[in-house]
Design goal:
Elements lengths: L1 E6 L3 H12 L4 E5 L25 H14 L4 E3 L2 E7 L4 E6 L4 E9 L3 E3 L15 E2 L2 H4 L7 E5 L3 H10 L5 E5 L9 H9 L3 E4 L2 E8 L3 E8 L5 E5 L2 E4 L3 E3 L28 E3 L11 H20 L3
Parallel strand pairs: 1-2, 1-6, 2-3, 6-17, 8-15, 9-10, 9-15, 10-11
Antiparallel strand pairs: 4-5, 5-6, 7-16, 12-13, 13-14
Helix pairs in contact: 1-2, 1-6, 4-5
Length: 306
C-alpha cells in the first residue's frame, strides 16, 4: 500500500509527485498515456515563469518528468476505471482497466481534460482525414494548403498562428463577434496576412469524400448559410474533463471535480488538481501550483491519521 497515488502525469500530477516525494511520501503516479498531458502538443509556451525565451511544450514537460524521476518518482502506465474509499480501513481502493487493484492512504486526481468535439456531421468520419485537434501534430501535412481553425480562445489563436508556418491560408471561425483569447495573441493573429477571421459563425457540417473538402457555415447574426472550401479543419472549442471514472457526487454540472481552495474534494483524503478541478483557468503554471497545494495537503492529511 502506498501513502499517495496520483492519477495523471500532466503538470499538476508531476508537480504533486515532486512535492509529495520530497515530503517523504511513498507514492506512485498512474498515467493513461505518456507523461506530459495536453502540453506535449503545444508548440511553444512563453508564459511559464523562468523561461526567458519560449519553450516547446514537450521540452517543458520532459524537464518536469525528468525532475520527478530524478527524485525517485515511480510513473506507471495504466488507466483507472474506478476509485472509492474503503471507510472501514480508511484507505482508497483504485482499480485499473486491467483489473489490477491499488491501495493508498490518500489520492490526488490530476487527469486533466480532453479537447471538446463540435459534434457535427462529418467530424467523426473525417478525423485523421482533414479533421484534427492538434496543429503541432498535423500542421505539416497542410503545407501550402487552405485550413480552418474553429474557436476563439487562447488555444485556437495560438494554433492558427502556428498553422501559418505551413498553410497558405488559415481561416479562423468564431461564434462571437470578437475573440476571447489574450490581447497579445489577438494582435499577432490579426496582423498576420495569412489569417482571415470569420466572426459570428458556426460550423454546421464538415463535408468531403475521402477527405475534407469544405465546411458548411451558419452566420448566427444574419442566418445566412455558406460553404467554405478548405483542405483541413482544426477544432479548439474547449475541453471535456476526464472524469468519467469518478462518482457523480464529486462532480459539478460540467463534469469537473468540486474542490475547495486546498484542493480537497467532498471525500476526506481525496484531492483534485489542474484542469480536472472546478473553476480551473487551464494554465500550466496554475495546474502545477494546484498539484503542489494538493500534495502538501495530502501530506498534512496523512500525518494526522491515527
Amino acid at each position: 500500500m502506498k501513502d499517495l497515488i496520483i492519477i495523471g502525469a500532466g503538470p499538476g500530477g508531476l508537480a504533486a509527485s515532486i512535492y509529495g516525494i520530497r515530503a517523504g511520501l511513498d507514492l506512485q503516479v498512474i498515467e493513461k498515456f505518456s507523461p506530459g498531458g495536453q502540453v506535449m502538443n503545444t508548440y511553444e509556451v512563453e508564459n511559464y515563469p523562468g523561461f526567458v525565451e519560449p519553450v516547446a511544450g514537450w521540452e517543458l514537460m520532459s524537464k518536469m518528468e525528468e525532475q520527478a524521476r530524478r527524485l525517485g518518482v515511480e510513473i506507471e502506465n495504466g488507466e483507472v476505471s474506478s476509485i472509492h474509499k474503503d471507510a472501514d480501513r480508511n484507505l482508497f481502493v483504485i482499480r485499473l482497466t486491467n483489473n489490477r487493484v491499488l491501495e493508498a492512504r490518500t489520492a490526488i486526481i490530476t487527469t486533466g481534460a480532453a479537447f471538446k468535439k463540435l459534434d457535427v456531421p462529418g467530424e467523426k468520419e473525417f478525423t485523421g482525414r482533414g479533421v484534427s485537434y492538434c496543429a503541432t501534430c498535423d500542421g505539416a501535412f497542410f503545407r501550402d494548403k487552405v485550413t480552418a481553425v474553429v474557436g476563439g480562445g487562447d488555444t485556437a489563436l495560438e494554433e492558427a498562428i502556428f498553422l501559418t508556418r505551413f498553410a497558405g491560408k488559415v481561416y479562423i471561425i468564431h461564434r462571437r463577434d470578437s475573440f476571447r483569447g489574450s490581447k497579445i495573441l489577438q494582435d499577432r493573429l490579426l496582423a498576420n496576412e495569412k489569417i482571415i477571421p470569420i466572426y459570428d459563425s458556426v460550423v454546421e457540417s464538415i463535408n468531403g469524400d475521402m477527405k475534407v473538402v469544405n465546411l458548411s457555415l451558419l452566420n448566427k447574426k444574419t442566418g445566412g448559410k455558406s460553404n467554405l472550401d478548405v483542405d483541413g479543419v482544426f477544432i479548439f472549442v474547449g475541453y471535456t474533463p476526464n472524469s468519467q471514472f469518478l462518482p457523480d457526487e464529486l462532480l459539478n454540472e460540467w463534469g469537473e471535480v468540486k474542490v475547495d481552495m486546498q484542493m480537497r474534494t467532498a471525500v476526506t483524503g481525496l484531492f483534485a488538481a489542474g484542469d480536472i478541478r472546478s473553476e480551473s483557468k487551464r494554465q500550466i503554471v496554475m495546474a502545477a501550483a494546484d498539484g503542489a497545494t494538493a500534495a502538501m495537503n495530502a501530506y498534512d492529511y496523512i500525518t494526522d491519521l491515527p
